[in-house]
Amino acid sequence: MTSQKKLRIGLIANRSHQDAPNSALVQLLHGSGPSLQHLQAEMVIVGRTLDAIISHGLVDSCPVVERFPYGREGGLMKLVSRVVDKEPARAVDAVIYLIDPVDPSSIFPEAQALKRQCVIHRKPFLATLASAREWLELEATAAGAAIDNKLNPSFELKNEGIALIAHDAMKESMLVMAEKHFELLDSFGHRYATGTTGGLLNQLAQKIKGTEAGKNWVTPYLSGPLGGDAQLAELVLDRQIRRILFLEDPHVARQHEADIQLLERAARTVCDYAQVISEVSGADRWLTLLTRRIAAQT
Q: For residues 18 and 25, is the Cβ–Cβ distance under 8 A?
């Protein structure tokens, strides 16, 4: 049997997520250390983040480590390069970047390029503690690890809300994905969407469930440019939406970029709760593994 390629994961955390004994970085390595060990993941860690891991005595949580320079010395820029690298031994397969929404470095060009290139090259970009923990749990259980029962409450989908958003060029992809994973999405207690996407998803639900049963399958809000992203951001901050599936088109200039960043910032504000999934292939795998994880839990 051919052994599966080990995952290579880029890791960086803003300073406020590093130093405290209960910081997001510490919670991640305490909680997901078993998943990292099961996956035997190779970690590419930016300088000060690795220093913090060592200071907390958690370096053993990371099976294999490649150290990158401090951010001010180009570590984050080098990580962007590894996202796009074609050489498997050098490229990273996913990036965990624990972002403090009020840290100015999170809007530096290299930070924005890191997220954009992850979307373009179809690699997970995990910017909150919640997203990193769930992604590692799903990948580890898919590789045969036992489920982490401490995470079970977040997988009780009847109690959960999900937001479904897609840029114009991605709306067809959203409909294809929603139809493929309709049973899973239908099991969420609440579904929300912006503008046109919400109308299209309700039409799809009517086709599948019938005119009456499907007409209010998602609760539609305003379109993104008219404030729908801000409306959903409030629900995220109130912990009514944990998961945001936001299929982005990274190749177009967007006049309402500030609104998009507002929604992402809301998720990063409740770092231990919310997550954003931004690209098609990663979202499809996420929904597939989420279905398996829920089946294993029951």
A: yes
Query: Does 1 have pLDDT greater than 50?
Result: no
How far is 76 from 64, CA to CA, in rounded Å? 19
Q: Which ranges in the chain belong to alpha helices (H)?
A: 24-39, 47-55, 75-84, 109-120, 129-142, 171-180, 182-186, 195-209, 211-214, 228-237, 257-269, 280-297
Six-digit token string for 156:
């009780």
Token pair listed for 153: 């409450």
Which structure tokens are listed for 170?
Answer: 């991605």
Q: Confidence band (pLDDT; 50, 70, 90) for 45? A: very high
Q: Quick check: 158 and 187 in contact, CB under 8 A?
A: yes
pLDDT tens for 64-110 read 999 999 989 999 999 999 999 999 999 999 999 999 999 998 889 99
Distance, in Å, from the CA atom of 66 to the CA atom of 60, rounded to the nearest integer, reads 13
171-219 pLDDT, tens digit each: 999 999 999 999 999 999 999 999 889 999 999 999 999 999 998 999 9
Catalytically annotated residue among 51, 93, 103, 229: 229
Task: Based on the residue annotation, tell me whether 238 is a catalytic residue of this protein.
Answer: no
Query: Could you please report the per-residue DSSP string of 115-177?
Result: HHHHHHTT--EE-SHHHHHHHHHHHHHHTTPPP-GGGGGGG-GGG-EEEEEE-GGGHHHHHHH
Q: Is this model's pTM higher than 0.90 or not?
A: yes
CB 297 within 8 A of CB 288: no
Tokens of 130: 């919640």
